[in-house]
Amino acid sequence: MKKAVFVLIGLLLVTPPAYADDTAEVDAFLTKRLNNIMTLLQDKKLEKPERNDKIVVIITEAFDFETMAKLSLGKKHWPGLNKADQVRFTKLFIERLKASYLEKLDLYDDEKIVYSKPEQVKNKVQMMTALVSGDNKITMLYKLYKSKNAGWQVYDLELEGVSLITTYRSQFNEVLQTGTMKDLFSKLERPEAN
Amino acid sequence: MSKFNISQYMGLVLLITFMVSCAGTKSPRHVDILPDLSELTGPPVLMQNETSPEGFDEFEDEFDAVPDLAVFDPLSGYNRAITKFNNNFFDYVLSPVSKGYNFVVPEGGRIGIRRFFKNLFYPLRFVNNVLQLKYHQAAGETARFLVNSTVGLLGFFDPAEAWLKLEAHPEDFGQTLGFYGVGPGFHIVLPFLGPSNLRDTIGLIPDTYAVPITYIPEIHLSGTSRTDRTFIALGVESYRRLNDASLRLEEYESLRRDALDLYIFLRDAYESNRAAQIKE
User: Considering the domain boundaries, does residue A4 fall inside one?
Assistant: First the structure.
């Protein structure tokens, strides 16, 4: 009993600083990258394709696209796919995600970014940011986990409380409920035709 | 006159039946008006592949916790049809009209007009903040209204936010119901207005009472009949919506391009967005 109490006290003493390290790490990691993106967006001299290439380099560092692809299909569909389909899906999904992210940035390029303190959620960290311009404010929640080889990585993004992974997952579910993987591929390839 | 009264009456009846049907359920914070389908479907069917790839489980509980809307969507057929209708309305009416309007009124002016209406909708935010016991926010709304109506020239400017850092706290009756634990109910897509659900659609009725535009027909203007004034009120509200939409055309177009299945996408986006607003 006494031992247990000591262990508990020990844990209480040890865990908070460890958590504080996590949030500080995420803060530094993400703030730097988002600031770099904002600088690129405000640089009017830069040609758009060149600018986009630079932004893609930054987000590729910060986002764990492979995990996001896997999560968006979920446990229900991903494990059942053969290797080739998994690779093809991942490729299509990443292309789509990048294009969509770049397009969103174009919409909000004259805004200011406001950071909130990151929060520890179990072993992951979430950081709330807001894009503010005039009377408009859009919240963006970045969710990160610590991957074994790449350190902190974004695995989901919530725009105004709407999770990217969740919305993709239910749409993929809907497509796969009535169709096959082939239908999903063709929809991912030609997003306009829905 | 008569139309207005019928909708008032119907709203009251709907609200009462709704409240009654929700009362008597055990936990006040989590009343769900969805039936519990788990009894019908039995234990979940085993997945073909029990061993998930490495690193999957770490996230799975997070996304599994999200309620699967597809389980109970009794109006999906109707909703899909209305989504298509609204989408066409956007393409063939709203978007071209807005673009013409954008040409006449510069963006700065449209933002001012949006602020003016936002200021006018102060009673709606005030009442619902009070109903949700958010007194501090309600007081903030009042301060905003006083400052913006005077210094902000009838609300066309927002000095309360710019100088006093007083942010608006939008709340509506749907959120108030959610605050008291009323679940969203099934999803409903409203013509012209877009995605909603049972709770929020019902919430629209009390909301109209807290919006000044509703009382335009009560103002006695010489030479106008009540019907005329009702049309004026409708015109004002439509104009408000057009002005709002004119500032967000690209946003919808961009969201639409993201969607593989527009209805499912808008439905889930709406429901998670509302859930997040209620949690605040």
Answer: no
Query: What CATH number is given to the structural domain containing A97?
Result: 3.10.450.710
Q: pLDDT tens track of chain A, all 194 residues?
A: 667 776 666 655 555 555 668 888 888 889 999 889 888 888 888 888 898 899 999 999 899 999 999 999 988 888 888 999 999 999 999 999 998 888 888 777 677 888 988 888 888 999 999 988 777 788 899 999 988 888 899 999 998 889 999 889 989 988 898 888 888 998 888 755 44
Cβ neighbours for B82, distance < 8 A, ≥ 6 positions apart = B189, B190, B191
Q: Do A171 and B265 touch (CB under 8 A)?
A: yes
Q: Which residue of A has its CA nearest to B110?
A: A135
Comparing CB atoms, the residue among A100, A161, A194 nearest residue B273 is A161
Query: By CA distance, what is B156's nearest residue in A?
Result: A135
Please answer yes or no on whether B51 and A188 come within 8 Å at the CB atom: no
Q: Are B120 and B155 in contact (CB under 8 A)?
A: yes
> What are the backbone angles phi and psi of residue B163, rounded to the nearest 5°?
-105, -40
For residue A49, how many C-alpha atoms fall within 13 Å in the half-sphere facing its CB? 0
Question: Is any Cβ of chain B less than 8 angstroms from the Cβ of A98?
Answer: no
In a domain, A143, yes or no: yes
Distance from CA of B259 to the nearest CA of A (A): 7
Range of the domain at A21: 15-193
Residue A154 located in a structural domain: yes
- Number of folded domains that form chain A: 1
CB half-sphere exposure, B193, CA atoms < 13 A: 10
A-B contacts (CB, under 8 Å): 102
ipTM of the complex: 0.79
In a domain, A186, yes or no: yes
